[in-house]
Each structure stands twice: as structure tokens, then as C-alpha cells.
User: What shape does this take?
Amino acid sequence: MAKKKKKSKTILEGKGRSTKPKCGLCGKSAKLTKTECCDQWICDDEGKYVLFSYERNSCHRNHRRFTLCGHHHAEGHSESWKDCPECRADFEKDAEMYVYYGINEYNFGKLDNPPSFEPTKCIDCGNIIVLSEGGYSSRGNEYWCEKCTDSNIQNMFR
Ligand SMILES: [Zn+2]
Ligand SMILES: [Zn+2]
Ligand SMILES: [Zn+2]
Ligand SMILES: [Zn+2]
Assistant: This one.
């Protein structure tokens, strides 16, 4: 009589492997909460943010403010942000920011097929301006790089 072989267990029973939740962005596990938008573990660190400091040291805030996921949730869209036509429409004139919001390091999952976009150029010197890095100035569809912005300001006071 052939005895049936016991199936070997392949599931690791948490040995050495910590199941402790950690922030999906920075990996810390000190004080966590779940994101409202996508139910992921994230640092509960909004309190750390100093108003108007523009620092980006809060995982929670960064995800909420600088991702499509956060935008999508805040605007009350339906379905997945990754193929949300409403999100796309919100950034219609700003594909560069759409892509940045979709692929930056504050995302848990990145935009699969980010659209291509024309780089933004300074109308004075022609240098490419990376909108997500800031430092530029704009009026309507015109953009000035940091350098030209500075010299424009200096000219004003000359
Ligand atoms: Zn974190
Ligand atoms: Zn989210
Ligand atoms: Zn959306
Ligand atoms: Zn310039």
C-alpha cells in the first residue's frame, strides 16, 4: 500500500521575515498610518511639517500632495488613477507635471505608460526648465528659468 507523501510545506512561516508593516516610501516603521487614497502603510508624519516651509520631509504629505494617487483621491475620481481620464484632463496643459506626479518617488506604484511631453524652455535663454524642481517663474504659457528670473528681478530694481 503506497502511502501518500505529505506535501512539503513551501510557505515560510514568518521565520526571520518580519511582517511588521513599514512605510512603503521610506521603509521606516516607527509611526505609521494608512493612506486614505490607496490603503498603503505610510509614515504618520504630517505633524512634522512646518507650515509654509515647503519642505518635503513628510511621506504622508508628499504622497497626498505630489502624486496622481493623492490628487485622484482628493478630487473624488473613480476607478484607478493610473488610467483615469479625469486626472489626465486635470493636467491637460501640464503633461510634465502629470508625468512627474505619476512617477516620482512618492508613489507606491508608478504610472505604466507616462505620456511624452515637450520640455518647458525658458523664453529668454532657451534652457530647459524642470518644472518639478521649482525655482522658475511663469506667466500664462511663458516660463523663465531661475537665472533669468533672478536677473529680471534685479533689472526691476535697477
Ligand atoms: Zn515614510
Ligand atoms: Zn495613494
Ligand atoms: Zn483621477
Ligand atoms: Zn533663462
